[in-house]
Amino acid sequence: MRAREEIQRLQHYFLKGNAMRAASSHSAKASIVRRSSILCLAFIATALGCANADRPKTAASVPSAIEVTGKPILEVQAQGVQIYTWKTDASGKGAWAFKAPEATFSGGGVSGKHYGGPTWEAADGSKVIARKAAEAPAPDLSAVPWLLLEATGHEGSGVLSKVTFIQRINTSGGKAPAAPSASAGEEARIQYTATYVFYGPGATTRPASK
User: Fold this and answer.
1) Is residue 85, in this structure, part of any structural domain at all?
2) CB atoms within 10 A of CB 124
3) Which of 2, 53, 66, 154 is 20 to 30 A away from residue 207, measured at CA?
C-alpha cells in the first residue's frame, strides 16, 4: 500500500513538473515573440524615418494661378521694405502707389539684394529683371500678394543668369498704409518678408484659361 502511494506521489510531481516546464516554455516563446515584434516595429519605424529624411522637401504649396512646372534652381528668404508714394490726380484725389522693393535675400549659399525693376542681384554679379505675370491673395490677408514673375532680362553669368520664372510666396507685411497721406510725394516704407523661388530653363507655367 505504501509503495503504491509513493508511486502516485512521484507521478504527481512528475506531471506537475512537466506542466511547469511547458508553461515556462510557452512563456519563453511568448516573450521571444514579443521581443521580435518590438524589434520588427522599431526596424520599420527607423526605415520610415530614414525614407522621410531622404525624401526631398517639396516647395511650398501655391495657388494654381502662380504655379510653375519645373525644378527650382534656388530658393531664398528676403526681408526689407515695400516702398509706396502718395500720388494725387488733377482733382486732388490721392492714393498710395507702389514704387519699388528694397530688400536683401539669402539662401542656398547665395545672397544678394532686391530692388526696383523688379531686379534681383546676387553677390556673384548676376542679375535677373522680371515682370509680373500673375498674382494670388496671400493666406495672410495683411500681407502683400503672392506673385508669379517672368524673366525679361539678365546680366552676368552667375546663379541668376538663367532664371526664367520667379515665385514670391510666404509673404508677411508689405501692404500700403491704410491711412492717407497729408501731402503729395510722401513715401511710406513698409516692412515685409517673403520667399522667392527661382526656376531655370525648361520651366513652364500652367496653360492660360480659355
Assistant:
1) yes
2) 15
3) 154
